[in-house]
Amino acid sequence: MATSEHVTPVLGMFPWASIKEQVEADTSRAFVVDIGGGRGQFLKAIQKEAPNGFGAKMILQDRPDVLASLTAEDIPGIEKMSYDFFTPQPVKNAHLYVMRRILHDFYIPVCKEMVKNIASAMGPTSRFIIADMIMPDKVEIGTEVTPYWMDFNLMMLNGTEKSKKQFEEILDAAGLEIVKIYPFAFGCHANIECRLKTGGASS
Ligand SMILES: C[S@@+](CC[C@H](N)C(=O)[O-])C[C@H]1O[C@@H](n2cnc3c(N)ncnc32)[C@H](O)[C@@H]1O
């Protein structure tokens, strides 16, 4: 995981500072909840664009054994919370929920249940950011091979890289919709911004 971390982009997709005003207007809501966030690497990167979490909580959720290995000095400004992502999300109405490199570890029916757990906690202005690769619809000779070999690796774990259409299927089952996709400058990595379905047009 540590090697993979070095070659996987973290920032340069969703503009974390764009939500500053919304967070500062209501710091009683958590700024961001990182679900299955490991050692806090994503949250620590986000802090570079969102110093002090804009005054609201930054919460790292993972298994208790993973969190127990982290001291307060390892993750300054970040609160640890033991949580099993197969259960309903306990932090309600956060500004942002993020999941990085988690959904690709599971097949679609399992992802639907996990995302339903997040949707159950979201309010009208909450956003769910998926940080994963988006599998191209069609194989183009000469383009990046990473999603394909990663897909084979994930098959060993009962996981799979997903296309935009597959993400839409998962989100739809959970009552969510895509607001915008923020692709990395090259390759297939992206941040997918999602919200509760509004029934209206995407902005
Ligand atoms: C592939 S790592 C991704 C870590 C981090 N999101 C990142 O991008 O670096 C998967 C993480 O999910 C956590 N995890 C596995 N099963 C979990 C569960 N049932 N509930 C919460 N976290 C879990 C693991 O402990 C691990 O930290």
Automatic annotation (TrEMBL):
A single GO molecular function, which one?
O-methyltransferase activity
Q: Where are the transmembrane segments?
A: none
Q: Which gene encodes it?
A: hpm5_2
Q: What biological-process terms (Gene Ontology) are attached?
A: methylation
Which ranges carry the O-methyltransferase C-terminal domain? Answer: 32-176
Which InterPro entries does the annotation name?
COMT-like, COMT_C, SAM-dependent_MTases_sf
A Pfam family reported for this protein in Swiss-Prot or TrEMBL: Methyltransf_2
Name of this protein: O-methyltransferase
To which species is this protein native? Lachnellula subtilissima
User: Which UniProt keyword terms apply here?
Assistant: Methyltransferase, S-adenosyl-L-methionine, Transferase
